[in-house]
Known about the structure:
The protein is of the alpha+beta class. The protein has four domains: about 5-140, Immunoglobulin-like; about 155-275, Immunoglobulin-like (Sandwich); about 290-405, Sandwich (Immunoglobulin-like); about 495-619. The chain has nine helices and 35 strands. It has a five-stranded antiparallel sheet. Strands 13, 15, 17, 18 and 19 form a five-stranded antiparallel sheet that branches. A hairpin with a 2-residue loop joins strand 10 and strand 11. The model is unreliable at about 1-40, about 250-255 and about 595-619 (pLDDT under 50).
Amino acid sequence: MRFFPSTRINESTGSVRQTNPVGSFFTLFAVAALSASAFSQEIVVESGLVSNKIAVGERGTFIINVDNGKPSNIPDQIEAAGLTVMLTGNQFSGNFSGQGRYSYFYAVVGEAEGEFTIPAIEIDVRGQKFNTQPGMVTVFKRKPGDIPFDPAKPFFAQLNTGVSEIYVNQIVPIEIKAFVKGRASIHEVGAPKLAHDAIVVRRFQNVEMDAREIGGALFSSATLPGAIYALKEGEHTIGPAEVTVRMIESDFGFSVFTQTRTRVLPTNSLTLKVKPLPPGAPATFSDAVGEFDLSVQSSLQTAMVGDPITLEFEVKGVGNFETLEAPVFLPNDASAWRTYDARKIVDPAENSDGINPGRATFSQILIPQKEVDAIPPFELSFLNPNTGEYEVRRTNAIPIAVKADPRAAQAPAPVISAANNGGGAMPTAAKPGPVFEDLLHIKTTPPNWREFPVSLASRPEFWIWQAVPALILCTLLAIGLIRITRRKTEKPERQPGDPIPFKEALAAIPGANSPRPEFYRAVKQALRSWRETTPKSTRQNLSTDVSRAYKALESRCEWLLYGADEAKRDGAVSDREASETRQILQALPTGSGKKSKPKAGKPAPAAKAKKNDDDFDLL
Length: 619
């Protein structure tokens, strides 16, 4: 047993490159040692981590190397407390006789901070038992600015913010950077995906292209600036985010021959501590966080009682304008004024990102109810995040001359009472004359009687001719109703590209004793159908046991279809293998309100390592 040198993986090709600080001399020595080992057919097992420090939520790599022999029981998952260790692929480098190195790559993800150990596992190589070396892993939380560059990767992305602690509603800048090796290697950048229940992420609108040298290599970079603010106090983990980058892979000198490929690059995650607002807030405080200045202008200098007066407020500064509310009116006599809700306007181009200042305007309408000589002041209070103290901005009283409306002061028209209380003779009204405009002339000559015409609707011929088009119309309506009913009752025909229903994919899985490639292709299709037809929230809320069993089954499909040898791949599916595979698939929730449960007496799905070639045990 020996521990191999540090290893780096090329994530674009899957190839492995070993590095050693001793230099080329040790490289030649390793090649000579490998040749001597292959000549003597000595079986050597090595294991180790590419890096023994992994940030929370990020992925590390654990590698098992086996020289001069292929192991028969490499597990799809290694059980490790606090870690998720899943097999992601394998590689063989050697001669046609099978002598060489078999490499197996595991993705290691830390779930929380701490020191963890990847335990040693026993593997069987040509009938001999070997134990791997345990791996010690330190999982830590990244601090702002603690974002390492890895020039060994041809492309990667980063998430960064300049702070680690903020207040509720405090807006701070955030940026996503994508790096691709080579000059002008980024062709196009799509909108990134970053979401959090307690964090509001402002839309990333601009893309800034640049280039920089990292570790002696030139990288093209794309920076997407944005801003965030928190709605709830506590410690929150942001990310990892995803950004879609269309990168240039080759260029033959003419733009028509440029080849591009679109990749989704995941970023690191960040931990942000959100502090509650401190006590002692002013009475006019309404959760505004920032540092602002306030000014106001009136539309009138003179007015009448009842005339509307428009006040235009301008708020400038650095802070969260999205949660900023209008200044508060502070009249000494509330009955002297009628107020209306203010109208807020924030131009997106003039919004603040927490560093650059912004601007917002408010329009407030007041109607004076009495004669006044000034408009009382308005007050805007906010928390200054730089000092952690509350500050108040107040306008001065605005001089204005409000007078009574002279039209309202005019006496009303006199009303003449019907009763004469001895005040003199009542005026006599003129008697109207009769007008006979509503009387008609009476004819005195004998009438000329005529026969009343027969109505067309009373003739049978009319109804016969009406019945023919009515019958045609009813027939067409009946045919239409029949077609609509058939469309609703018949199963719709699946269009090309539509996802296959999970139940249909599950039913299409062949039974025991079927060829393994056919069986696992159907299982892989069922897993894909489940991912495409199940809501994201349901997929993310899987129990630990179901999640591990699902990942183990997915890894086994990939390994058996693309990585297993012919003897293992071309065999028949056993009864136990088929039964346990179906049990895992039936345990996956579909988000429809019904959840499949394992049968009573059987343990919940949990991923375990299979013991040998003929032992399939994911439950």
